[in-house]
Structure to design on (287 residues):
């Protein structure tokens, strides 16, 4: 018997997908996360066509890996974002192999956490969740934001960041920890907005 | 906070931020094995960074994309992966 998911309950949708249902649960799951994943992929890749292509890969992989989702290790959105980030980093690494190490400059020109980047293709109206989060992330210092951008969105290790920014490794680690602690203080806002 | 917990917090932050080296990951895993309650620290950091990553202005997807995803999955379900998935879900 197929698991029947309650509408908009992400964990139940994942459970239904894990049972092999690629119909309504997958459609609902896609409706919940696709626009957010596409935005992340666009930020990381900068190309709409490539982001749309990777978006498909991400959702096929999420469906494939649904049986392994473990709620004790993180929220559904964290799982979704982790898979999306991983596929985007694969694409960035493939691009680096093809075109050399120009991605750092490309990234820094285009990125602006806490803003919409002035993109003309922002089509979905901003939710309260996104507005609250962007305001919260403005609280990160520039130093914290830059190391987190390089590590999370470009996949650079602390050693690589230290080299790129000409900083001691210990300073990079301290900034990452301070940034992550600052983000953690925003968890109540995050959890509250997720319930909206 | 004990030195061990401080060390675990640093490693969890590096892990969640995607900046951990292989040695860091191994050390974190050893600490988690010794004290599973530290998983909560990792989870909080992961939820936090996931929120950061999902804070960008959402973009509308193409109306065709979901159909293309479902077609790919249908092909997988009919192939070897689908057979393995059914087999593993029973075991």
């Amino acid at each position: 018997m197929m698991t029947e998911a309650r509408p908009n309950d992400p964990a139940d949708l994942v459970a239904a997908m894990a049972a092999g249902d690629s119909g309504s649960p997958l459609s609902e799951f896609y409706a919940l996360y696709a626009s957010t994943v596409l935005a992340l992929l666009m930020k990381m890749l900068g190309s709409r066509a490539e982001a749309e292509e990777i978006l498909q890969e991400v959702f096929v992989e999420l469906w494939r890996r649904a049986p392994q989702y473990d709620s004790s290790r993180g929220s559904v959105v964290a799982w979704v974002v982790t898979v999306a980030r991983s596929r985007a980093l694969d694409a960035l690494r493939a691009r680096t192999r093809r075109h050399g190490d120009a991605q750092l400059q490309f990234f820094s020109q285009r990125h602006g956490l806490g803003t919409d980047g002035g993109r003309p293709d922002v089509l979905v109206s901003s939710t309260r969740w996104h507005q609250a989060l962007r305001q919260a992330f403005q609280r990160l210092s520039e130093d914290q934001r830059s190391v987190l951008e390089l590590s999370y969105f470009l996949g650079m290790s602390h050693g690589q960041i230290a080299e790129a920014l000409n900083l001691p490794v210990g300073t990079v680690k301290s900034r990452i920890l301070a940034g992550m602690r600052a983000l953690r203080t925003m968890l109540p806002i995050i959890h509250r907005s997720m319930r909206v | 906070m004990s030195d061990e917990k401080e060390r675990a917090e640093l490693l969890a932050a590096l892990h969640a931020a995607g900046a951990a080296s292989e040695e860091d990951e191994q050390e974190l895993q050893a600490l988690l094995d010794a004290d599973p309650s530290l998983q909560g620290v990792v989870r909080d950091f992961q939820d936090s960074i996931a929120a950061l990553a999902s804070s960008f202005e959402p973009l509308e997807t193409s109306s065709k994309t979901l159909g293309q995803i479902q077609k790919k999955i249908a092909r997988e379900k009919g192939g070897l992966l689908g057979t393995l998935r059914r087999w593993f879900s029973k075991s």
